[in-house]
Specification:
- By secondary structure, the chain is of the alpha+beta class.
- The protein is 47% helix and 15% strand.
- The protein is built from eleven helices and seven strands.
- The strands form two sheets. The chain has a four-stranded antiparallel beta sheet, with no helix packed on it.
- A hairpin with a 2-residue loop joins strand 2 and strand 3.
- Helix 1 runs parallel beside helix 3, helix 4 runs antiparallel to helix 6 and helix 7 runs antiparallel to helix 8.
Length: 375
Amino acid sequence: MTIAPHGTAEQQALRAAVAALGERSLSPDALWAEAGKLGYLGVNLPEEYGGGGAGVVELAIVLEELAAAGNPLLLMVVSPAICGTVIARFGTGEQKRRWLPGLASGSTRMAFGITEPDAGSNSHRITTTARRDGGDWLLTGRKVFVSGVDIADATLIVGRTEDARTGRLKPCLFVVDRDAPGFHRTPIPMELSGDIRQFELVLDDVRLPADALVGDEDAGLLQLFAGLNPERVMTAAFALGLARYALRRAVEYARVRQVWDRPIGAHQAVAHPLADAHVGIELARLMTYRAAGLYDAGDDAAAGEAANMAKYAAAEVAVHTVDRAVHTLGGNGLTKEYGLAALLTAVRVARVAPVSREMILNYVSHRTLGLPKSY
């Protein structure tokens, strides 16, 4: 199990190659296509379906290095990490043959819908339901903050079905094609800028074939969290990459910017906050790759705890690092020329999504520390 952020010789070579790709002046679409062509988008997927046969460690490396170059591909958190992982682990042979080669090459993109207007972070309150209708399923419900539906070929939807034995609702996962009748999307106006848009989905008796159900109907939460743990690791990698990018820009500026007779980086009031940010980044990277390593080793329980803590630590250090970087540049930090101001809002995404910092602290307090729950 690899837990060091620099990893094996192969992982170091992967870092260097992806970093070089990230420095090229490519549009998001062109970068996605090139990353897929080079095998980076599917590095975690099985070789027999066109993937790299590696793991979440390697996929996190790809996203971190692209973000560290200032060119994160946010849909990597969803398409290969969540959807690709779930289908690779639990999909039928036909589902794997249909979806994984495209997800590995980047020619197919898949979105992920779990959050609902009235459920928020409480997956037990999901009301999107699937009921049998002959040999088909009928899926009905609403989802919000679903990323990239407009560019995705399909969406992996978290719904619930009724347990025939107990009558209770249990979570299940369904693949819904983008053009399925009854599947409607509406853009959500966001203050954030970026190449990935957010959508509200309405599913109005969407008729799905029996094989749209991914995996075992009774597996429930096992399959769901098989995708959510990589999602947290990848969110951490995204945040760490942006933190590294901001720190690099601030250090470069502090080395050469002179106001009096020496560079401003010589003053401890400028240097120490940047040094502190570097320490925080390195510590969060250790936890991120520990979580990824645990997941790749098959230890889902330990990976869940580590992934939550990694996401928390990376998000916090990213927010603080970007703030310090902007402050180092002063007024220049708010200009388009230096590319830091937009990160002030971008890194806050990692604090609230895919799960808020407070819910992670709830998880740690009652799952790790054994304290009673307040909800």
